[in-house]
Specification:
- The complex is a heterodimer of chains A (247) and B (308).
- Chain A has 247 residues and is mainly α.
- Chain A has one domain.
- Helix content of chain A is 84%, strand content 0%.
- In chain A, helix 3 crosses helix 8.
- The longest helix of chain A has 29 residues.
- The relative contact order of chain A is 0.13.
- Chain B contains eleven helices and 14 strands.
- In chain B, the strands form three sheets. In chain B, strands 6-7-8-3-9-10 form a six-stranded mixed beta sheet, with helices on both faces. A four-stranded antiparallel beta sheet of chain B has the order 2-1-4-5, with helices on one face. Chain B has a four-stranded antiparallel beta sheet with strand order 12-13-11-14, covered by helices on one side.
- The mean pLDDT of chain B is 84.
- The chains are: A mainly alpha (247), B alpha/beta (308).
- Chains A and B meet through helix 1 and helix 4 of A and helix 2 and helix 3 of B.
Chain lengths: 247, 308
């Protein structure tokens, strides 16, 4: 057992660390952080139906802004991950090291999640500020952050799969954006149109409903299973696509 | 560690890239892999390195089967792919550290190994530069350092000297020869003289099949059959010379050489030497023999003959 752990974890972390470092080295990470904080900041505090309209100390507005921003930014973050390795051929080097495709995909996934976690951590001042403005439901805030992380994890899974399909970054970006769009609004529209059991099923796959209840402070095991399943499906598909490249 | 390849076959869709290939490389041996482009060299090497699944056949490294013990085998192998892909944004040191971690070298030993690789591969002055800034020769060394960092028992080098200048080629060759004393090396190249200079064992493949296998000397001999000498004989009528030489016992054929009226090529039958008799014939006829040069078949000729 210990042997399995020492065999599996260090290389996965090595890949994750390298991937995270390359996000920062290529400035991608900084651009994303600035875009994320800029967008969510402007729409939360300054523009449109901002946080002051409700007259209530809550981060609800921020969560819905961040939800859309992350939906757009995560494909930009994941598009490079595997596609670039395939384009330059470095994937061949990785595949001849004593690591599995699963470890490669998992390492890259962890790097994306780490970067999103950094981005979310940088919005903690919003929380502190709002908490000073009036009584805030701390539980709901924690739930909202967890919801954002889970939703990011699902999109990261989809994005990594898209990145493993093509060795062209732009194509990967468009694939993950389209699949993301399906989860974002597509299933909702489908569900409304179809009705019946199929409609219920489609509505159940819609990401919004699952996220909404979390951002209100309700953690339901159903939602967690949903996000975990989408993540797992994405990563699994990415692993299998990568494996098929060796054949 | 011995490398044993048995009945290796690989299809890409309908196309057969490697066709029932079997061979063996022993510890301390350097196998030179020759063949025209598209002959199946890279496919075979990738299959041995474990980054390609063969359609049929088995490959074993020592007592490990590549298909069943992929993890173990990858720890035993160092692989330098054909185009030497590298992370151009990383510095040499960072890259080697990353590779060392992926090879699960113990943390305490990583720095020592990196320093050793920097020394062995001559990267001292370049170690803090970004790989993207390095010249092709230095990149090749980084690739080699990456393949060697975990002290592998088997080294697979796919055209390690392409794009290098003559000095670098000699250096890399020497490095390969030095490493090759204790390890098993499989090495492909387009440059025949290089394979001849470095390898103990040469294999030529064409259309996925082995067409020749042996030492350089064996290959030459098999192709050439008998010896060939170029003779320049002056003060004589060429027709008479050809006739007289043709009459010598053991001579297979006499050819005239274009643009050199006094020169002929004499091909002898296998296992026969005719130089003495050529000389004696000249003396007997009072001709002046000004040149008598034995010509070895070049490996180039062997290669072209076999892969036509």
């Amino acid at each position: 057992m210990i042997q399995i752990i020492t065999k599996t974890i260090p290389p996965t972390l090595a890949i994750a660390a390298q991937e995270l470092k390359s996000h920062f080295d290529s400035l991608m990470a900084y651009i994303l952080l600035v875009l994320f904080l800029g967008f969510s900041g402007v729409f939360t505090w300054l523009y449109g139906s901002d946080i002051f309209i409700y007259g209530q100390a809550s981060l609800q507005v921020f969560f819905s802004v961040a939800y859309i921003t992350l939906f757009l930014l995560i494909p930009a973050l994941t598009m490079r991950s595997i596609a670039e390795e395939m384009r330059t051929g470095t994937i061949e080097i990785l595949l001849t090291k004593p690591i599995s495709c699963r470890q490669i995909v998992l390492g890259k996934y962890l790097a994306v999640i780490a970067l999103i976690a950094i981005a979310l951590a940088l919005t903690l001042p919003y929380y502190i500020t709002v908490a000073h403005l009036g009584p805030i439901d701390h539980g709901a805030v924690v739930c909202g952050y967890i919801g954002l992380l889970l939703m990011s994890s699902a999109y990261a899974g989809i994005g990594l799969f898209a990145s493993s399909v093509s060795n062209n970054q732009i194509i990967s970006f468009l694939i993950s954006l389209s699949v993301g769009l399906l989860f974002h609004i597509g299933f909702e529209i489908l569900g409304r149109q179809m009705g019946g059991f199929a409609g219920q099923l489609a509505l159940g796959l819609d990401m919004n409903t699952h996220f909404e209840s979390m951002s209100r402070g309700i953690i339901d095991s159903k939602d967690i299973v949903y996000f975990a399943s989408v993540t797992f499906a994405g990563l699994f598909a990415a692993e299998k696509t990568l494996e098929s490249k060796i054949a | 560690m011995d490398v044993i390849v048995k009945n290796l076959t690989k299809f890409y869709g309908q196309q057969k890239a490697v066709d029932n290939l079997s061979f063996e490389v022993k510890t301390g041996e350097i196998l030179g892999f020759l063949g025209p482009n598209g002959a199946g060299k890279t496919t075979t090497m990738k299959a041995i390195a474990g980054c390609l699944t063969p359609t049929e056949g088995t490959i074993s490294i020592g007592r490990y089967n590549v298909a069943d013990n992929a993890d173990k085998v990858r720890q035993l192998i160092g692989y330098l792919p054909e185009h030497n892909p590298l992370y151009t944004d990383m510095t040499v040191i960072d890259y080697l550290r990353y590779m060392a971690r992926l090879q699960r070298i113990r943390a305490a030993k990583i720095n020592d190994r990196i320093l050793e690789m920097v020394n062995v591969c001559g990267l001292e002055g370049e170690k803090h530069k970004r790989i993207g800034e390095l010249s092709k020769g230095y990149r090749q060394r980084v690739g080699l350092a990456q393949a060697l960092i975990h002290d592998p028992q088997v080294l697979i080098l796919d055209e390690p000297t392409t794009g290098l200048d003559p000095n670098q080629i000699v250096e890399i060759r020497e490095l390969i020869r030095r490493i090759g004393r204790e390890k098993t090396i499989i090495f492909s190249s387009h440059i025949l003289s290089e394979v001849e200079a470095v390898c103990d064992h040469i294999m030529i493949i064409n259309h996925g099949r082995i067409v020749a296998d042996g030492t350089a000397a064996q290959l030459r001999k098999a192709e050439q059959g008998g010896q060939m000498v170029v003779a320049t004989i002056e003060d004589a009528d060429r027709n008479l010379v050809v006739k007289a030489l043709q009459a010598i016992e053991g001579v297979e054929m006499v050819d005239i050489v274009k643009d050199r009226p006094n020169t002929v090529e004499v091909h002898s039958q296998p296992e026969r030497q005719c130089t003495r008799d050529i000389f004696k014939t000249c003396v007997a006829n009072g001709w002046t023999l000004t040149e008598l040069t034995p010509i070895e078949t070049k490996l180039e000729d062997v290669f072209r003959e076999l892969t036509k």
